[in-house]
Design brief:
By secondary structure, this protein is of the alpha+beta class. It is built from 26 helices and 28 strands. The structure holds ligand BES and zinc ion.
């Protein structure tokens, strides 16, 4: 286990690389590699006797430095080569003084290939009954240094010329096309074209048994989708989306894609979802492959979004890159917004902007309600902290504030501003303020002033609106979920766009506390369309009026779901009671919109957390059955050819809720279908959208035979979505012996490292298994750390555990365990976890008895 110093030291200030000639010879059988690199660059700063580069785990076997100047070239051998592990550095010491100027550094080195999915790593799969291994790289955020010595910081942009020696009969890919190849025994030596000027984290190469499908954009860019031989037939959908996105972005950004080719590669083992390596984009299989027999509509839509996201980065991120990880959100927040713009353009009937609010904004608002959130622009002090900021703040809050800005500027000024930004900073690096500057120059609006408040401060506002006669009074305060923190937090204000759509202009901003005169306060709904990143609470009378508008059908879906989510989260925060939320939910009995139902499902999930005792769970069931009855009847089990995208997405949600409340017709349907399934062959007869409902229901009510059958399906499946759906089922049995079996699978050969976090997160979500899962996690912490320690999912573990507990007694145990194993990658998530347990416990203490009474009343009124 490596020790790390407290502060990140930046090396770019000391040496600025311009060009790398990198040659690597991986040995797959020995799981090692050797290499040499020549780095041309400029040494800055004061004269001294060393040059420092990044490396981790490498053995540097030779180093020579050549100084180039008027007097000609002068070469020095390194007198000492010191690896400084605590800093991920290698220091090349010389006897002579090194003055600033042009240098070439030549290094030879060797390293080990290990199983964790960063740096250079193996991806294992079966082909024709034989195990095959693809070798692939994952360099973001700072893992290029595991493969070659370099200045591994986003600002250290350079060009790269890569030469690889790999087995002659295999596919070999990198960022750019092949420049030359020559056979060398059973190997082939491939040199790739020099890359554009770019950051080290975007470099990539892959070799192994891969097949592809190919298409071309209108301007002649070759787009290929690669996968293992058995999977390549499932790449058509992604390939088509990729071509269309490349064309859309070239046009939207007004800059053509700068490389002659773009590869999309589905890898059998992959830590994140996908990675935007320039011209060589990598994906987890589930995020690229669409198999009509096995892929659900939700997963297919996700493929479209992921492809669109990574392709956005080819401009926003790759061409123009954040200067430092503090501005990671520029990359991820922007791409997380742009993916919706592109897919909305390709599939208007998918209503992506409605989904955006639920899938991005609501997730961001939830995390941002914690005291231990962070500002969108976040300081990063330690390399291990970098991965903790790939979270809903950088991604979804980033996307949400962009959404608000888009609304504020209008589509045209926004697009023109972007064009200006990308052109001005192409092949270079930026900070957040560069984006605002560009938008301000083009739009002539005070963008900096408006946006700074949203990206530099943590949290977001809660507006309290009180309607009197013809007048409305509005005030703002920071929305803090954990009431314990409310008094201590400092006062922050935001410029809030009211979006009231009455006679107040749409971009009216309230800065603190305001009174507004309005003609129709009766129909007033603030934040119309929900593009503002804030929540609103209304006085009781007005809320009743809004409820009647829900029933009358005069509010749009976004406004309906906004009201509901604001109310739910206000209840969690103790601003209103849970019963008030349930009363308001009464207005939704005729609701038929998928996105609104998505929020209703979240709401019911949240209420279940208050009710982990069996009688109360039982008491909730009739209510849930009644609430879903209309839609269950309308949609039925079988989907219809003519139905809308939203209705198809709605079916698994509504049937899932009803089945979880023991709706007899559904339980019977699931159990019968399951009995008829004899093996992997006839899974294909079951709608992929409904497999989760089916497996989940038989597991929840089943025992050993069901477990065995589901496990057999899991082990036989080669489809990664299917395996995850089965994981959700295998972890949701009631019987402790079956949890024990599920937990034992996690570190067995039947579960890929990339899927471990699903197994754990799902196991925690099973209320009968959460304590057992907690014990398993503690007992296997060293294993998790060793195998997933660099993975994003690793730093989320504390939150996976915390979010299922709502009792103070657990808090002590939680603090005790994490106290003993704390490290920078876990700190943020641990503090959030503590806060989540605290606020959930407080909510339970406040509202548990009242909801128990509510359901008792509900049931006695029925009988
Ligand atoms: N750049 C990220 C992938 C990444 C994240 C690599 C963190 C290393 C560390 C990529 O663009 C990304 O955001 N991927 C997402 C999917 C996307 C559609 C939200 C992911 O991997 O979840
Ligand atoms: Zn991204």
């Amino acid at each position: 286990m490596k020790r790390m110093s407290k502060k990140v030291k930046r090396l770019f200030g000391g040496f600025k690389p311009k060009h790398y000639e990198l040659s690597l010879i991986p040995d797959r059988d020995a799981m090692t590699f050797t290499g040499n690199v020549t780095i041309a660059g400029y040494k800055t700063h004061r004269p001294n006797k060393r040059i420092t580069l990044h490396q981790v785990g490498l053995t540097i076997t030779g180093a020579a430095l050549t100084k180039h100047d008027k007097k000609g070239d002068q070469t020095f051998m390194a007198s000492r080569i010191n690896n400084h592990d605590a800093f991920d550095e290698v220091r090349l010491h010389t006897e002579q003084m090194l003055y600033p100027g042009e240098y070439t550094i030549k290094l030879t080195f060797k390293g080990k290939i290990t199983r964790p999915m960063d740096g250079l790593y193996p991806c294992v799969f079966q082909h024709k009954g034989k195990e095959q291994v693809i070798m692939a790289t994952q360099f973001e955020s700072h893992f290029a240094r595991q493969v070659f010595p370099c200045i591994d910081e986003p600002e250290a942009k350079a060009t790269f010329s890569l030469t690889l020696t790999t087995p002659a009969n295999e596919t070999v890919l990198a960022n750019t096309p092949v420049k030359s190849q020559k056979k060398h025994g059973r190997n082939i030596v491939t040199t790739f074209e020099t890359t554009p000027i770019m950051s080290t984290y975007l470099l990539a190469f892959i070799f192994g048994e891969l097949k592809y499908k190919e298409a071309r954009t209108k301007t002649g860019i070759t787009v290929r989708a690669y996968a293992t031989p058995d999977n390549v037939e499932h790449t058509d959908f992604a390939l088509d989306i990729a071509v269309k996105c490349l064309e859309f972005y070239s046009n939207y950004f007004g800059i053509s894609y700068p490389l002659p080719k773009c590869d999309l590669v589905a890898l059998p083992d992959f830590a994140a979802g996908a990675m935007e390596n320039w011209g060589c984009i990598t994906f987890r299989e589930q995020a690229l492959l669409v198999d009509p027999n096995h892929t659900s509509l939700a997963a297919k839509q996700q493929v479209a979004l992921v492809v669109a996201h990574e392709l956005t980065h080819q401009w926003f991120g790759n061409l123009v890159t954040m200067r430092w990880w503090t501005d990671l959100w520029l990359n991820e927040g922007f791409a997380s917004w742009m993916e919706y713009l592109a897919i909305n353009h390709l599939f208007p009937e998918w209503q992506m902007w409605v989904q955006f609010i639920v899938d991005e904004q609501h997730q961001a608002l939830k995390l941002d309600a914690l005291e231990h959130t962070h500002p969108v622009e976040v300081s990063v002090n330690h390399p291990d902290e970098i991965r903790t900021i790939f979270d809903a703040i950088s991604y979804s809050k980033g996307a949400s504030v962009i959404h608000m800005l888009h609304d504020y500027l209008g589509a045209k000024a926004f697009k023109d501003g972007l064009h200006h930004y990308l052109n001005k900073h192409a092949y270079s690096n930026t900070d957040t303020v560069d984006l605002w500057d560009a938008m301000e120059t083009i739009s002539k609006k005070p963008v900096k002033n408006f946006m700074h408040a949203w990206t530099s401060q943590p949290g977001f506002p809660l507006l309290t609106a009180t309607v009197h006669q013809n007048k409305i009074e509005i005030s703002q305060e920071r929305f803090i979920a954990n009431s314990k923190h409310r008094q201590t937090s400092e006062i922050i204000v935001w410029p809030v766009p009211l979006l009231a759509a009455t006679n107040v202009p749409n971009d009216t901003l309230i800065h603190n506390h305001g009174d507004f005169e309005m003609h129709y306060p009766d129909k007033l709904k603030l934040n119309q369309g929900q593009s503002g990143f804030y929540r609103v609470l209304y006085d009781n009378d007005h809320l009743d009026k809004l409820g009647r508008m829900v029933v009358a059908g005069t509010l749009l879906p976004l406004d309906r779901l906004g009201l509901l989510d604001d109310l739910l989260e206000s209840a969690k925060a103790g601003k209103v009671t849970a019963v008030k939320v349930l009363d308001f939910l009464e207005n939704f009995h005729s609701e038929d919109n998928y996105a609104v139902w998505d929020v209703i499902a979240t709401l019911i999930g949240a209420l279940r957390l208050l009710a982990d005792e069996e009688p109360l769970r039982e008491a909730m069931k009739p209510f849930i059955r009644d609430l879903t009855a209309k839609q269950v009847k309308r949609l039925g089990w079988d989907h219809k050819k003519s139905e809308s995208h939203f209705d198809r997405l709605l079916r698994p949600i509504v049937l899932g809720l009803a089945a979880s409340a023991d709706e007899p017709s559904l339980v019977e349907k699931c159990q019968n279908l399951f009995l008829q399934m004899s093996g992997a062959d006839n899974i294909a007869n079951i709608d992929p959208d409904l497999r989760g409902v089916l497996y989940g229901t038989v597991a929840r009510l089943g025992d050993r035979p069901e477990f065995n059958k589901l496990l057999a399906l899991h082990n036989a499946s080669t489809n990664s979505e299917e395996r995850i759906t089965l994981t959700a089922a295998l972890t949701s049995f009631k019987q402790p012996v079956l949890h024990e079996r599920a937990l034992r699978l996690i570190n067995s050969k039947n579960v890929r490292l990339q899927d471990v976090s699903y197994w754990l997160a799902y196991s925690f979500m099973n209320r009968h298994a959460k304590k057992q899962t907690w014990r398993w996690m503690k007992a296997h912490w060293a294993w998790l750390r060793k195998n997933l320690g660099n993975d994003l999912s690793f730093c989320r573990m504390p939150v996976y555990a915390a979010r299922v507990f709502s009792d103070d007694s657990f808090l002590k145990e939680y603090k005790k365990f994490f106290g003993t194993i704390m490290e920078p990658a876990l700190e943020r998530s641990f503090k959030q976890g503590v806060e989540i347990i605290e606020l959930q416990s407080a909510w339970k203490a406040r509202d548990h008895d009242a909801i128990k009474q509510y359901f008792a009343h509900y049931n006695s009124a029925k009988n």
